[in-house]
Amino acid sequence: MCEFKPCFLIPCYNHGATVPAVVNGLINYGYPIVIVDDGSELATRKILSEQAKRPNINIVTLPQNQGKGGAVIAGIKQAQALGFTHAIQIDADGQHDLSALPKLINESKNYPDSLISGQPIYDESIPKSRLYGRYATHIWVWIETLSFAIKDSMCGFRSYPIDAMMNVINHNKLGLRMDFDTEIMVRFYWGNGDIRFIDTKVIYPEDGISHFDALWDNVKISWMHTKLFFGMLPRIPKLIKRKSPDQQHWSSHAERGTIVGIKTLLAVYSLLGRKAFNLILKAVMGYYYLTGKAARKASEDYLEQLEHYASENRLSLPKKLNSYDHLLSFGHTMLDKLVAWKGDYSEQHLTIHGSEHFDDLAKRKQGAIILGSHLGNLELCRALSSRHPDIKVNALVFTEHAERFNAVLKAINPDSDMNLIQVNELSASTAIMLQQKIEQGEWVVIVGDRTSVTKEQRVVWADFLGKPAPFPQGPFILASVMKAPVYLLFGLRDDSQAEPHFDIYFEPFSDALILPRKTRETALQQTVQGYASRLESYTIKAPLQWYNFFNFWQLSGKNNDND
Predict the structure, then answer these.
(1) Tell me: the pLDDT tens digits for 164-221?
(2) 229 vs 29, 141, 225, CA distance in Å?
(3) What is d(CA 494, CA 498) in angstroms, rounded to the nearest whole number?
(4) Which residues form the Glycosyltransferase 2-like domain (predicted)?
(5) Are 438 and 369 within 8 A, CB to CB?
(6) Which of 97, 456, 499, 519 could lock onto 201 through a cystine, CB 3.0 to 4.6 A?
(7) Is 504 helix (H, G, I), strand (E, B) or coil?
(8) For the chain, which residues make up each domain, given as ranges?
(9) Residue 179: CB partners within 8 Å, gap ≥ 6?
(10) Residue 510: per-residue pLDDT
(11) Beta bridge partners of 73
(12) Are 103 and 88 in contact (CB under 8 A)?
C-alpha cells in the first residue's frame, strides 16, 4: 500500500455534548470526518445534524444502537465506500488527548499496512475498577497471541488500514460492543498483521458518559476471550514462528515487558495474591520456555558450565537444575523487585549477613560504592535501607528506559528513595556527578557483571565458574576515581521457605580501590578477579538466581569503541 488517504471516524452514542469539541479539534487537519450516529437520542441527533452542515463531515445513521463495535464497523465500511485508505478512530467523549494525533498520523503514513494504536497514559481520573479490568485483558491478550506485541488492546484511538480491516471483518463474526476493540486487534495479529503503538494521554471526565455495562459487557468480554483462547490453540505453531531476530550484545535483547506489563504484574499480585500469581506465572514462563529460544539456549549453556565446574571441584549444588526452573525463578524475582519497589518487604523478610558493616556505614553517613550483579535481587537494597530512611540509594543503569522506570517507581511508591540514573558511558561528567552524591553521604549502586553498551571491548578477563569471562572495566575504574569505600551486595531468595524471605549479604570489598599508574593493569586484573570470585561463590549458593540470559563467556564480536 503506497497511498495514504485517511478520514477521521467518530462512533457516537448520545455524546452530543462532547462531539462538537472533538470535531473542532480535528477540523484543522483537513481530513474528512465520518461520524456514526449509533442510534442516539433526539438531543444528540439534532447536534449531529448541525455538524453535518459543516464541510467534509459525513454522518452515518444507524436506526438502532449496535454498540461501539457495530458503529466502528459501519464507519469503516462507509470510509471504504468513499475511497479512503485509513480510518482514524477518535472516541466521541473527548477522552483522548488530540495532541498525539500528529504522531499517530505520521506513524500511519510511515507504516501504512500497520494498525497504529494509542497506548494509554492515565491520570488519577481513571476508575480503579476499569484500570484493573484492563490489566486482566492485557494478560489474556498476551496468552491469545503468545506475544507481548500488543501493549494495549482497548484504546479507541487508532488508525485502521481499511482494506486489511475489511478482510478481518468479512471473515469473522466480531463482537459489536466493548469486546470489538480487543477482538479485531487480536484477529488482525493472527493474520500476520503488524501493530504499532504511540503514547496517548487519556482522561476520564467527571461528568463523562460511559456506556460500559458492568454485567453484560463483562459477559461478552469473557466470552470473547474464551473464543480467542480456543482459536489460539490451533495457531500455536504459526504464532511461535513470529519471532524477532536474535541480536548479539546483551543490551540488544530487549526487555519483553513494558511499563504496562510491570503495572499489570503488580495489579495481579495486589488483586489475587501471590499464590494465584504463581499459577499464572508458571503458565507464562512455560510459554516463554517454549518460545524464547535464545534465552533458553543461554540458560542451558550456563547450567551445563555450572554443573561441569561443580563436578570438577566436588561442589554440591542445591538440586537438579533445568532451564524451565531457571526462567521460572526469573519470573519470581521480577515480582520480588516490584514488591520491593512498592515497599512491601521490610526487615522481617530479610536475614542480613554483615549488618554490622551496613549499620556502621549508615551511622557515619558515609557515601559508598555498592557493587551488585545480576545474581538474585539487587532491589532488595530498598528494603535494607528502610533501617535508615535518611539513606538515598542511586542505581546507575546503562539503558534508555531509566526515565520511564523512575516514573514507575514513583507511581508504585511515591516515597521510594531509589533513584535510577541513566548513563551512556562512564565519562568524566558522570564521575563528577557521582562524586557529589557520595560526598553528600549517598550510595551509588552499580553492577559489575555486564559489559559496556558502547565500549564492549574495554573488559578484564577473569575466571568465572572455571572459564574466562569478560567483565567491564568501567565500574572498577569508577570506584577507584571516587576514592570511596566499596561494598558488595547480594540479595538471594530463600526458596526453602513458604513465605518470601531473603538472605542479604553485605560485605566490604575495599576501603578504597587503588589502581597505581605503574601497575594499573595488574591491579585492575586482581580487583576484577576478586569480584568474580565472590560472585562465583554466591552463584553456587543460588544457581537458579543468575539472570544473565546470553552467552556470558564471550563478547558479541561487535567492535563499537569508535562508534
Answers:
(1) 999 999 999 898 777 899 999 999 999 999 999 988 887 665 554 455 554 555 677 7
(2) 40, 9, 6
(3) 9
(4) 8-124
(5) yes
(6) 97
(7) strand
(8) 6-242, 349-541
(9) 69, 217, 220, 221, 223, 224
(10) 93
(11) none
(12) no
Cell of 337: 523487585
Q: What is the pLDDT of residue 257?
A: 42
Task: Show the cell assigned to 452.
Answer: 559496556
* DSSP at 375: B
pLDDT at residue 563 is higher than 70: no
The C-alpha atoms of residue 555 and residue 302 are separated, in whole angstroms, by 15
Let me know: does 394 contact 248? Beta carbons within 8 Å. no
- Residue 484 contacts residue 369 (beta carbons within 8 Å): yes
Contact 337, 374 (CB under 8 A): no
Question: Distance between CA 350 and CA 333 in Å, rounded?
Answer: 15
Taking each helix axis from N to C end, the angle separating 323-342 and 259-291, rounded to the nearest 10 degrees, works out to 170
pLDDT in tens, 222-255: 888 888 989 988 888 788 777 543 444 444 443 4
The amino acid that residue 532 corresponds to is: A
Cell of 279: 499459577
Three-state DSSP at 502 gives strand
Question: What's the distance, CA 339 to chain centroid?
Answer: 16
Task: Say how far apart CA 21 and CA 1 lie, in whole Å.
Answer: 33
C-alpha distances in angstroms, 524 versus 8, 90, 301, 435, 447? Answer: 62, 59, 28, 20, 16
Contact between 327 and 312 under an 8 Å Cβ cutoff? The reply is no
Q: What is the pLDDT of residues 383-431, one digit of tens each?
A: 666 666 777 888 777 654 445 555 555 554 555 555 667 666 666 777 8
* Cα Rg of the chain, angstroms: 27
528-531: list long-range contacts, CB under 8 Å, 24+ apart: 528/448, 528/460, 528/462, 528/471, 528/473, 528/476, 529/462, 529/463, 531/371, 531/448, 531/462, 531/471, 531/476, 531/488
Name the pairing type of β-strands 393-397 and 443-447. parallel
CA 106 to chain centre: 24
Structural element, H or E, at residue 263 = helix 259-291
CB distance 552 to 374 below 8 Å:
no
